[in-house]
Specification:
The protein has helices spanning about 15-25, 45-50, 60-70, 80-100, 135-145, 165-170, 225-230, 265, 280-285, 295-305, 320-330, 330-340, 395-415, 440-455, 460-485, 490-510; strands at about 5-10, 30-35, 55, 125, 150-155, 155-165, 180-190, 195-205, 235-240, 245-250, 270, 310-315, 350-355, 360, 375, 380. The chain has about 525 residues and is an alpha/beta fold. A hairpin with a 4-residue loop joins β7 and β8 (about 195-205). α3 (about 60-70) crosses α4, α7 crosses α16 (about 490-510) and α14 (about 440-455) runs parallel beside α16 (about 490-510). The protein is globular. The structure holds flavin-adenine dinucleotide.
């Protein structure tokens, strides 16, 4: 028994995008297998989302939302995708999150939902669960999946590579047909073996790339696995230069990856320098502390250079009474307190960090990639919704909308798709026999993160990008060779994907010579 099997639809990743697609597919009677990297299925970017999700109440307008998204995205957006998000999204928040899953969004004393505003939004149109919105949504989604008989969840399973007709079929004729995806090779941490999982359709929902950078708000799994897998299989990738840097993560070593939500500035929090002076009016007279993220992040970066400082500060005390601040931002308050920062009176030391990937695997309005029967949804995909820069609280909504649209599309065609035959696609070939070298993997990972932060970070120059390209090309060749001769592990899979994803981002950043949105060339 080698663990190989066949399923109807294989979903890779259990964040909001993958979990929504799985639930919507089983609602339509489709059988689903969901694989996810870590043992705890909730571990994802989704789980750590703090601020909220765009929806809107009776007084809001879809047209104004479209305008705000396109303005934040520097007019680089796919208008059709933005209009879909703005018109379908709020209804899905209501049907799936509020009515079906009963996500406990904050309400006012009169029982009405509490709408708030964040950076670059011109209306109060965001729903939140205190400052842990993503956690509440993720847990509700996974609980619903846990109750569903038609979803098989495999935790501790890392997808290694897509199985495609043109790369893997033993039938020579397949080389001349359109390229299609028929499954995934997947590493099972527990048995330390690789399974061949065949499927009529595969959905990649593997999230972002934050871990390729030294400073990030993302958890360790955000390492570009899906992007690299799709690229290796011949899929089109797009807009990879657009990595959004969040202006405010906590700067208090040894704390790592902790985001200080934009909702604090939405509620009136002010960015200040070491002397207590506000500075955002210099960088955005119109929006000031609520400027789009790229402008705010570069404003902080510029002030750090001016003052020779390691960080700037966020003053929360102006937001309300200490009790109001504790009630509105309980997680941020508790986390900072561990580092002896009382956010009700102490300014929070903050620095920008890699946060969100606006580019990704090219998909159409249903999440279809350029490879047949391969879908991509959520942060790993590029629908064009975010253009060159993402507006706050739109990523969770995009995962919900495209998770649903992909599920609709798949369920309408799945009965007509042939089941891939086990005889046509080989089992995993164990070629590597040397034990993985952990020290080498960790050092290479550190090199990539340092290189990307310094040369492909917030402010990019031609000479830095050229140097990064040279080093990443070399590193990719070395790592690919190393990978071929080693026993496969999750860390090795991650290193291989990180190196390729870093190269794709750097190539795109080098090729785009103009500054636009979150891609800034000096
Ligand atoms: C700190 C933080 C705060 C944020 N706040 C907000 C917010 O307030 N509002 C908002 O809209 N957005 C926010 N975002 C962005 C948003 O959370 C993400 O863009 C969104 O949740 C991505 O969802 P996803 O389903 O695409 O990916 P994820 O939620 O990241 O899920 C990816 C899944 O893929 C799995 N995976 C990865 N690689 C593999 C592999 N090789 N094999 C198997 N499984 C794999 C992971 O384990 C995980 O389950 C925030 C992000 C962060 C990090």
């Amino acid at each position: 028994m080698n663990g190989d099997f066949t399923t109807e639809v294989l979903v890779v990743g259990s964040g909001i995008a993958g979990a929504t697609a799985a639930l919507e597919l089983v609602r339509r009677g489709v059988q689903v297998t969901l694989v996810t990297r870590v043992q705890q299925p909730e571990e994802s970017n989704t789980y750590y989302a703090q601020g909220g999700i765009i929806a809107y109440g009776d007084s809001n307008s879809a047209d104004l939302l479209v305008t705000d998204i396109i303005k934040a995205g520097a007019n680089y957006n796919n208008r059709e995708a933005v209009e879909i998000l703005a018109t379908e999204g709020p209804g899905l928040v209501r049907r799936i999150l509020i009515d079906t899953l009963k996500v406990p969004f904050d309400r006012r004393p009169n029982g009405n939902l509490s709408w708030i505003k964040e950076g670059a939004h011109s209306e109060d149109r965001i729903l939140h669960v205190a400052d842990h919105t993503g956690r509440a949504i993720e847990i509700a989604l996974l609980q619903a999946i846990g109750k569903s008989k038609n979803v098989q969840v495999l935790t501790g399973h890392t997808a290694i590579d897509l199985i495609t007709t043109s790369h893997h079929s033993i039938d020579i004729q397949e080389r001349y047909a359109r390229r299609a995806c028929v499954g995934v090779y997947c590493y099972d941490r527990q048995s330390k073996s690789v399974k061949r999982i065949l499927a009529k359709t595969v959905i990649l929902a593997t999230g972002g790339v934050g871990q390729l950078f030294l400073r990030t708000s993302n958890p360790v799994g955000a390492r570009g696995d899906g992007l690299a897998m799709a690229y290796r299989a011949g899929g089109r990738v797009l807009n990879c230069e657009f990595v959004q840097f969040h202006p405010t993560t906590l700067h208090k070593p040894p704390s790592e990856n902790f985001l200080i939500s934009e909702a604090i500035r939405g509620a009136g929090g002010k960015l200040i320098d070491g002397n207590g002076e506000p500075f955002m009016h210099k960088y955005s007279p119109e929006w000031q502390d609520l400027a789009p993220r790229d402008i705010t992040a570069r404003g902080i970066h510029q002030e750090m250079l001016l003052h020779g400082a390691t960080n700037m500060y966020l003053d929360v005390s102006v937001v309300g009474t200490p009790a109001e601040i504790r009630r509105r931002f309980p997680d941020i308050h508790a986390f900072c307190q561990q580092y002896k920062i009382d956010i009700t009176c102490d300014p929070i030391p903050v620095v920008p960090a890699a946060h969100y990937f606006c580019g990704g695997i090219w998909v159409d309005t249903f999440g279809r990639t350029t490879i047949d029967n391969l879908f991509a949804i959520g942060e790993v995909a590029c629908t064009g919704v975010h253009g060159a820069n993402r507006i706050a609280s739109s990523a969770l909504l995009e995962g919900l909308v495209w998770g649903t649209r992909a599920a609709n599309q798949i369920s309408s065609v799945i009965d007509g798709l042939p089941e891939p035959s086990e005889r046509e696609y080989p089992e995993w070939q164990y070629t590597g026999d040397q034990i993985s070298d952990k020290a080498l993997i960790q050092q290479d990972m550190k090199t990539i993160r340092q290189l990307m932060w310094n040369y492909v970070g917030l402010v990019r120059t031609t000479s830095r990008l050229e140097r990064a390209l040279e080093e990443l090309n070399h590193l990719n060749t070395q790592i690919e060779r190393f990978y071929r001769h080693r026993v496969v592990t999750d860390e090795l899979i991650g290193l291989r994907n990180s190196a390729l994803s870093a190269l794709l981002i750097t190539r795109a950043a080098h090729a785009n010579r103009s500054s636009v949105g979150c891609h800034y060339r000096e």
